[in-house]
Design brief:
heterodimer, A: alpha/beta, 4-stranded antiparallel β-sheet, B: mainly alpha, 7 helices, elongated
Chain lengths: 251, 229
């Protein structure tokens, strides 16, 4: 079943540097969909459309539809705060709040109005477990989050998103600053999380795209060139431009 | 992938193509030479081919190791990955064809200078056809020539016809004169090895089609090894 349906979507920034042209893409639930391609191709722009982060950008033109469970999220009637609770996002650089590890996770819940302390505490453990960080921090939850390593901070950011129980998780190059072991832990946790969430990932390399993708979409200069299962995309892509890119002939 | 890495991968694939062409050439000569040694009772040539099988095996494992290192270090994708996967497979096919040549050389040593049977002429023709198919199959692989790879397996029919002819004639010989049983049986093994060798050339062509198209196909073989008795 498709969680998100992007229909004939186009976007243009006022400086004309990057745009998306007539993108149509069906994003299945409980899978990892990877948006990959060279820089400037529109991957992050498309990702940001999915929780309306582009509302803050200087967009001059936008058309088409983006349906989440059949509802058009681009509609003026959409409650953007509620949307972002449903569609969480992890960025390239981990940005932890200047609080303890625990408070990094409870802050969002408290802001969202959660008052039940049992639920909040349960959520701390649960989200840390899901982000594969619990075993490393369970004995020091009240230490400052800033003391964690880069890889741990990024998993804390993922746990912070998970604490709010979203339905969709967007990840924009979440491991670009991490070492291979931390990268492996994040990728491994994503494989577990897809049972419960719809995951959309902009990877930091073609290799990461190949390792993680259930479904892969290749974007080039604002155009969606090819969509295929991860197994097919990296062994036998159909479009010559995709072949050239995954073989490292450009990009 | 940075341009420098791409160039390294291109160079490594080119190197692998050279090695597989060389290995194919050695195996081709082994097939032709083994039947020639049998025909002329050339013990020295038979021994040389028998011993050279170790060189073929060594080259096969070197090629495999090198292809695996390239996969691990260059992380190839798409057709690059399919080329390297096919190299692993084709190296194995060549080694097995080399084993068939070794088997024929052993028969040549066993028969010594005994006068070959007149079916030798068919065996030589089978060896020439197999070696020629092998030569062009390896050429098609390194040139990524799908059209040629698709056409070569059809020639296997000629080998099958010759094999059936040799089989029937040798059977008749054995029935008519028990003194022929020993030599005829050895000749039959030679025919069998050549026929199997040609089947493995077909496998190489299947790998070339997989490399170029990404499709795993199987050519029709009425006498597939799995059906053989």
């Amino acid at each position: 079943m498709n969680k998100i349906s992007i229909q004939n979507f186009s976007l243009q920034y006022s400086d004309g540097t990057e745009s998306l042209r007539n993108i149509s893409l069906e994003i299945p639930a409980n899978q990892i969909t990877v948006l990959f391609g060279p820089a400037g191709g529109g991957k992050s722009s498309l990702l940001r459309v999915l929780n309306r982060l582009n509302d803050l950008a200087d967009v001059t033109h936008q058309e088409g539809k983006v349906l989440l469970d059949g509802e058009d999220i681009l509609s003026l009637k959409t409650d953007v705060i509620a949307l972002r609770r449903k569609v969480g996002m992890v960025f390239a650089r981990p940005v932890v709040l200047p609080f303890s590890i625990r408070e990094n996770l409870t802050y969002g819940l408290e802001v969202a109005g959660e008052k039940d302390s049992d639920r909040i505490n349960g959520s701390v453990e649960n989200s840390l477990q899901q982000a594969a960080l619990w075993d490393e921090v369970k004995d020091r939850l009240d230490d400052p989050a800033i003391a964690l390593s880069g890889g741990q901070q990024q998993r804390l950011c993922l746990a912070r998103v998970l604490a709010l129980e979203p339905e969709v998780i967007l990840l924009d190059e979440p491991t670009s600053g991490l070492d291979p072991i931390s990268t492996g832990k994040v990728e491994e946790s994503l494989q577990g999380l897809k049972q419960d969430y719809t995951i959309i990932l902009v990877p930091h390399s073609v290799q990461q795209a190949a390792r993680t993708a259930d479904l892969a979409a290749f974007l080039l200069q604002g155009e969606l060139v090819e969509v295929a299962s991860g197994d097919t995309m990296f062994t036998n892509p159909r479009d010559q431009r995709t072949q050239d890119y995954v073989q490292g002939r450009f990009g | 992938m940075p341009r420098e890495i791409r160039e390294t991968l291109d160079r490594k694939i080119e190197d692998h193509f050279k090695v597989i062409t060389d290995l194919g050439s050695i195996v081709e000569q082994a097939i032709l030479g083994s039947v020639d040694a049998l025909h002329h009772g050339d013990m020295e040539l038979a021994r040389e081919i028998y011993n050279n099988d170790q060189i073929i095996n060594k080259k096969r494992y070197e090629l495999e190791a090198s292809a695996l290192i390239t996969v691990a270090t260059q992380q190839p994708m798409a057709i690059d990955l399919r080329i390297l996967a096919s190299i692993l497979d084709i190296a194995g096919e060549l080694e097995r064809i080399g084993d068939y040549a070794k088997g024929i050389a052993r028969i040549a040593m066993r028969l010594g200078d005994q006068t070959p049977l007149q079916q030798m002429v068919h065996l030589q023709k089978m060896a020439e056809l197999t070696a020629d198919m092998l030569h062009r199959a390896i050429g098609a692989f390194v040139e990524l020539d799908e059209k040629t790879a698709l056409s070569i397996p059809k020639e296997d029919d000629q080998i099958d016809i010759l094999y059936n002819k040799v089989y029937q004639e040798l059977l008749d010989l054995m029935i008519n004169d028990r003194d022929n049983i020993d030599r005829a049986t050895f000749h039959l093994w030679v025919a069998h090895n050549l026929e199997r060798g040609a089947d493995r050339v077909t496998n190489i062509c299947e790998r070339t089609v997989f490399t170029t198209s990404g499709e795993l196909i199987e050519f029709d073989r009425s006498d597939d090894e799995s059906e053989a008795f």
